[in-house]
Amino acid sequence: MRKLLSTGRRARLPETVYLHHEGRKIEVRLKPNARAKRLILRLDSKTGEPVATCPPGLGESKILHFLQKNVNWLVDRQQARAPNVPFEHGAVIPVRGLSHTLEHNDVARGTVRLLELEEGRILLVSGNESHMARRVTDWLKKQARKDLEEAVARHAAALDVKPASIRIKDTTSRWGSCSANRTLSFSWRVIMAPSFVLNYLAAHEVAHLREMNHSDRFWRHVETICPNYEDGQAWLRDQGRRLHSYGVEADD
C-alpha cells in the first residue's frame, strides 16, 4: 500500500485515471474520502481492481504523479495476486483450512452436503446450478456461525463474560469487532481458514468484553484463553487477504 499526504486544498476529481506501463494502460478508480488524510493506492480485496482513496485537497495532477511513480509497485501487486475463485462446479475452496471440490448435483432440492471420499473432500450442491454460488455462500455462513458460537461460548465462559449477540458479516476491513453494546461481529470467511485461526479470532473479540482496547491487559486475556494466539494472528496477517477472492466472479 502506497500513501501520499494531503495538502488540505480541495479538488474535483474524475472517476478514473489511467497509468502507463510498458505500452499498456492501467485504469485506477479514484475514491474521494473526506475523512482520509493520505492518498492510498491499493487493490480491491475482492475484485483486484486498482483503487486510489483520495483525501480532499489533492489535485488530479498530483494524484497522477504519485500513482505513476508507483506503477511498478502496483503491477507487482497485480501479478502476485491470486485469481478469483467463483463458487461454481469444479472449483476448489478451503473449508476449515482443508481443500474441498464443489460439485453440482442436478436434483430438485437445493442442499449442500459434505462428502469425504478416498479421492478427497466434496461439497455436493443440489438444485438449480444458477443458484449454486448463493447456496455455497449460505452453507459457509451457517458453518461459520456454528463454529464461532461454540468458540465464543467457550472463551466467554473462561473469562466470565457474556456477549449480547453474535453477527456474521462479509467485511473487508476487519475480521471481527466488538461494539459498545457487547455485540460481537465476525466475517463468515474465517470458516475457510484453519480452525486455530477462527479460535483466535473468537478469543480476540471475547477479550474485548473485558478490555475495549489493545492494552497489555487485553493481550493477557487473549493469551489466557488462546495460548497460541500469535499463530492465528500471523495467519490472518499473511494469508487472510486470500479468503476474499473466493465466491467472487472470475477475473477477466
From TrEMBL:
It comes from the Bacteria. It holds the Pfam family YgjP-like. Residues 38-238 form the YgjP-like metallopeptidase domain. InterPro entries: UTP_pyrophosphatase-like (IPR053136), YgjP-like_metallopeptidase (IPR002725). CDD domains: M48_yhfN_like. PANTHER family: UNCHARACTERIZED PROTEIN YGJP, UTP PYROPHOSPHATASE. This is YgjP-like metallopeptidase domain-containing protein. It comes from Cohaesibacter marisflavi.
